[in-house]
Amino acid sequence: MHQPYYKDLLTQETDSPWVRLHGTKDYLDMVQILEKYPAIHQTFNVVPSLIEQIEDYNRGSVKDKFLELSYKNASELTGTEKKFILDKFFSIDVKNCIAVHPRYYELYFKKQEGSDFSPQDYLDLQLWFNLAWIDPSFRSGVPELKNIVNKGRFFSEEEKRIVLDKQLLILKETIPGYRKMADSGQIEITVSPYYHPILPLLYDIKLGKEANLRTVLPHAAFKYPADAREQIEMAVEFYKKLFGAAPCGMWPSEESVCEHILDFFIQAGLNWIVADEAILFKSLKLKKRNTGLLYQPHTLKRKNGSLNIVFRDRNLSDLIGFVYHKWEAKDAVAHFLKHLENIDHAFGHKDTLVTIAMDGENAWEYYSNDGHDFLNELYTRICEAKFLKAVTVKESLELFPAQRNIPRLAAGSWIYGEFGKWIGSPSKNRAWEYLAQARAELQKLMDAG
Asked: pTM of the full predicted structure?
């Protein structure tokens, strides 16, 4: 679960509403659904800077233009504000999140046609934009929201306030909801580096070339190992304050890893990290995919200690993340379970660890019913399967400790096993050069005391 840090620290304003909107659509319901399936144990990762921003909303200490314009009486909107709402309040998947609500879809076409909006149209748009971002489980399970959904159109200002107030209440329940499920032992909560940096590039920008020799590096050097270490240590301390115990695992941002930062994980007291399968095969210098090595944990034994690492099955993870939303839920789950059954047969029914790791919030708006049909079917089938058990990474490592050591971990991320998403193009390299200049100026101030 992750979002960039949107808040301007000088103005306390956020230029994007995605923490609030994903917060009401993708975080709390993802753990609550598991209450129906006690046999499903699952690992959830949280990014500290995301949780910090959720807490900002809970304290009312952030200014959100989208929220302020949602609360504003539709009859009092200025021309500039109306244009902002028309431009921004259809920012959600059209097929699965707009078209399923007749009034919202009607307003969508009205905007496409360039027709004038009445005050009632603006009021209904204010409400539907926020209501569509609320998870279906809350829209059907909270009586006030269910009544508003059933009404569908011609809303009052009071009904709009109900939606917005419920949205903020869901945010307030998110962290306690995760604590509750963690205390029950059904979920393991892990953490990412505090502000979600690409740690290897923070350590030394030259590692971009280690991951891909063809990478064009910025002209300015950028090398701040202490910053990479601090991002890890800050995250661990934040986690301790939030959950009352140290985390066992860490999801390096974008599963970006390299040999140079392993000591930072070890010294922070972490037990395991996760990376993409491409990193495993690059580390072992294998040209072909080897599932015998993929479907087990590994250790990273170093002179200062050791660390466990699991590698995600890219194919199965990406089927959920990018493919199955186009399928009927039962067909998608049957296809997924068949893959797992084939793995079980291929390994002679021996214990194997298949790691599914994916973004927690980005996939579901492309699924019908925000993914609930798929997830309910998936969890039901996993519970019924005799050959399969859903466990947290911590549970798996306790049951079946890693037996193989990786002598040197290759540099790369879960995006093609390299860092091209963040470095190499002229615009990205220019951004690194600006960052290097700013960081150097900061260092001068720090050195001056």
From this structure: 0.96
